[in-house]
Structures are given as C-alpha cells and as structure tokens.
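Our collaborator T.R. sent over the components below with a one-line note: 'Predict the complex.' Nothing else. No constraints on interfaces, no templates requested, no preferences about which chain binds where. So this is a plain run: every listed entity goes in together, and whatever single assembly comes back becomes the starting point for the next discussion.
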Amino acid sequence: MDWLNAIVQGCLLGGLYALFAAGLSLIFGVMRLVNIAHGDLIVLAAYLGLTVTGALGLHPLMSLLIVIPAMALIGYVLQRGILNRTIGDDLLAPLLVTFGLSVILQNGLLEVFSADPQKMNAGALETASIPVGGITLGVLPVLMFLTAVGVIAGLQWMFYHTALGRAFRATSDNQAIAQLMGLNRAHVFGLAMALALAVTGIAGVFLGIRTSFDPSIGGGRLIFGFEAVIIGGLGNLWGTLLGGIILGVSQAVGAQINPGWQLLAGHIAFLVLLAVRPKGLFPRMDG
Amino acid sequence: MVEPLLVVAGLDAHYRDFQALYGVDLQVDPGEVIAIIGANGAGKTTLMASIAGLLPNRPDAIRYRNEPIGRLRADQVAARGIALVPEGRQLFPSLSVEENLLIGGQLGRPGPWSLETVFELFPILRERRATASTALSGGQQQMVAIGRALMSNPDLLLLDEISLGLAPVIIKTIYEALPGIIGTGMSAIIVEQDIGKALAVSQRVYCLQEGRVSLQGHSNQLTRAQISRAYFGV
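Returned assembly:
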C-alpha cells in the first residue's frame, strides 16, 4: 500500500511539474525560445502572491486574480521590450539574454525579500484530505493536479479551436508568411509570452502554498520543467502533462526506496527516457 | 487621368549580400493587370517581396495610393490591401485547408471574398477543407495559396510564379479561374515564366533582366522578337 500511495502522490505532484513546464512548452512551441529565466519567473510569481496575500489579506488562491494578469502583463512587456530583439537565426542570443534575466531576477528578489524562506498560508486547505480506498489524498495536491489538467486542456483547446491559436501555429510554421497574412510577429510573440507567464503565475502561487521558497530555488524548478517538457516531447502539451507525471512518480518512488534518492530518481528517469526516446514520448509530427 | 494604385520608383533592392534590383520603375493603375516576365534570377521574386513588405526599402521607393509604403512591415502592407501569393505556395503545414484560408482572412477587410466564395471558385477545396494542407496535391495547394490571399480582400493581388512545378492541365484550371478573380475590379501583378500566358492575361508587361527593366509595353503590341531580346539580352 505504501508503494501505491507513493505512486498516487507522485502523480499528483506531477501536476505541479506540468504547470512549471506548460509555459516553457508553449513558448518553445510558438517561437523556439528556450527561456532560462522560467524558473525564476515562477519564483517571482510566488513572491507576487505572497505580497498580494500579505497586503490585501486575501487567501493565497484569491491572489491568483491579481497574480495571473500581472504575470501576463510582465510577459508581454518582457517579450516586446527585450526578448523580441534577440530572436532570429541565432539560438544563442536569447539563451544568453534569458540567462542574464535569471541572474537579475534572483538578485532582485534577494534584495527585496532577503534570503529567508517564505511560505504562503492557505489555512485549512493545506491539511484537508479525503480518504480514497486505503490512501489519503490531500485536497491541495488534488486541486493542483486538476488545475494542471484544466490548464493543459485549455491551452490545447485554445491552440486548435481559436483564432489566437491559429495565429500561434501559423507564426510557428513560417514567421515571414504569417506576417504577410497581417499577423505582426512581435505582437503574436508578446501574446504567447503573456499566456505562458499567466500559467507561470498559477504555478508560482501553488508552489508557494505547497512548500517554502526563497529567491534561489528557480533553477531547480526550471530543471523540473525542462525534464517534463523533454520527456513528453517538445511542443506537445499533453505530452508535457505526462512528462510531469512521470517525473513526479519517479521522485516519489525514489523517495520511497530511500528519502535521499528523491531528486536523483527523477533525474535518472529523465536520462533513461532521453536515451531510449531522444525525441520524447510524443514528438511533434510536423517539427 | 486616374491616379495610379501603385508606383515603384527607382527601387534598389538587396537580397542577402547582393543587389537584386537596380532602379526599377513600375506602375499599376486601378483595375489593371500587369505581367512581369524574365529569366530565373532576374529579380522578379525580390520585386514581389519588396512590394509586399518582406524586404525593407526606402519609404518612397514604393508608393501605394500615394502613400509611401517602402519601409512598412509586411503585416502593415497587408492591412492596406496588398496580398501576395508567394512563390512555392508556402502554406502553413500545421494548419488545415480551411485554417489556412481563415488565417488569410483574419485582417477582416470587407469585400466579396469569404470561405464560401473561395469554395465556389475552387470547389475541390470545400471537399478537402479539413485536410492538412501538406496532404494536398501541388495544384490544390496552389488553389489554397490563391484563396488564402483572396481572403484578405486585397485591392492589389501579387501572384508569384503560380504555375511553377504544376502539371499543364492544372495550370490551365488555375488560369481559367483568374478572370473570375481579377474581374471583380482587383488590380494584379502576375509574375510568370510562360510568356504566352503572361501576355494573354495582362494589359501591360514589364520584362526584367538582371535586376533592371529591359522592356515594357502593352501586352498586345509587343512582338516576340522584342520580348526575346529583352528576356535573354541577345
């Protein structure tokens, strides 16, 4: 039963990893941008949630009403102001710029919020649980998992059934021809980053409710996000969800064997999958 | 005297590191169809890309409705009513036939063209509307590319080598559809290697040779000998 429990809890944790990864997957899919600062943007969202919660006395989940639009706005401005200037034939320029952004974000957060670990208090929600069979499911992990599924389903629907999604796919296919159709690449990319950081806002607030955080943990979240994206196959959203789940389950099973093996087990699962399926489980057909 | 729709004046355009056009002058009047002929590498596609805004130029080198558009981005040019059917069709591979057409119409310019009228023009596309654009034959892809440009209800349609790589019977079908398109009062610039086709559909013709206009005139007045000389430079 302990093992079944570990697998189920790992699945639920995978939802959070999928939330970390969805934004990365989206921006890579639309503009082939690898955002090294993604983890730090998750941490920024957590601090935004903390600040809003503290200043307005809101429940952490209610802070999403402010954090999501704020992150979306940051995403649009960041893309139009900085990142669009780096996107071109050279993949190295955006990598370097987002790496620099990561350093700036970490040190900025350190300056403003200090290195002390912080946590958002979600009250009874954190300890509430529902017994299912012989296993006890925490309400918060279940909520995180359902949110991840909802976010992925929403993004998938947006991609294939809306004019915005069509614009994203067309721009991803051929930027010059999309421009001929009247789609301004700079604006389309801005919207993609806004959407990606809106999802990052959700991920950051959940992160801040689930565990304590400090300005230095962005790098680790970036790795989890990357691993989930690559396991699932670059640019495939449902694959990203599955990648998150595989990562979460590996970590939980590793921790079950030996508490020290939690992170290692996740990385090993990633490396094994990369060796067996270098393009991930569900590579994009048209890539 | 009617005011010209498009005036290209002294256009020097560069493609990567080399200069592809030297002082090209060209004019299109409202409702007029002109043809551009010339050998491979004469600069025809560069001229189309320049007009459509894919290559930046001196603002004044290209004027549309008496407004400088030489330095505008392609999306700004498209919004003013110029649509390009690019060489090699260049459909969006991850979009279906219908989605390719809808992308063309997303500017929302009013006019006669809609999904319905494009499907009437090319009925085969209605049957294949949900198909991935990559699964179509070359001729059907060309129909989508033309339909996609029409969906923006342009006032000036640029057609770049629409018969390239297609079977003669398909080319015939597409050229038979052209009068129905241009008959709506639209102006057009047609780039074509087949001189006979170019002269048949156009009122005036320009011949490009090594980036310069080597001949221009009314399509029904030029002789074969004049054209051959301008085309090949012999």
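Summary for T.R.: Chain A has a mean pLDDT of 93.
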